[in-house]
Amino acid sequence: MRTFVTKASVTKALVATAALGLAVVAPVATAGSASALPAIMIYKVQYDSPGADRGGNTSLNAEYVVIKNTTRSNRVLTGWTLRDRTGYTFRFPSFTLKAGATVTVHTGRGTASATNRYYNRSWYVWNNTGDTAYLRSASGATVDTCSWKGGGTATSC
């Protein structure tokens, strides 16, 4: 879950502190540093594909995660993983995400391209009632997460 700090909220906090006659002794994060998006982020999760969950490939591929490169540089995602709470894991093979581009990771089977990748699973990954998507670098560091509680079909992260 990302937390955003705006200039207005920092200013209000400083004004309130000054009004109470308190000194500010801790450094305050700037809006630019606190609200910066990760270079590679989970942008959207379509966790409930339309219709009944019967496991057909079309239905499986309508369940997906969109990953976005928010930078102006191409980023190598080779060895990165996308997984759910249970541990169902997709590992990126040799893959570069272009600057400003997205890649959609579908649950079912298909032909990989620069914009679409596939888990190649025969059943659903993302829980409709709530789950968490974890995006990790090749070294295993968590780059981004996205959680939902259900009650819809998708979430923007």
From TrEMBL:
Residues 1-31 form the signal peptide. Residues 28-150 form the LTD domain. Keywords: Signal. It holds the Pfam family LTD. This is Lamin tail domain-containing protein. The lineage of its organism: Bacteria, Bacillati, Actinomycetota, Actinomycetes, Micrococcales.
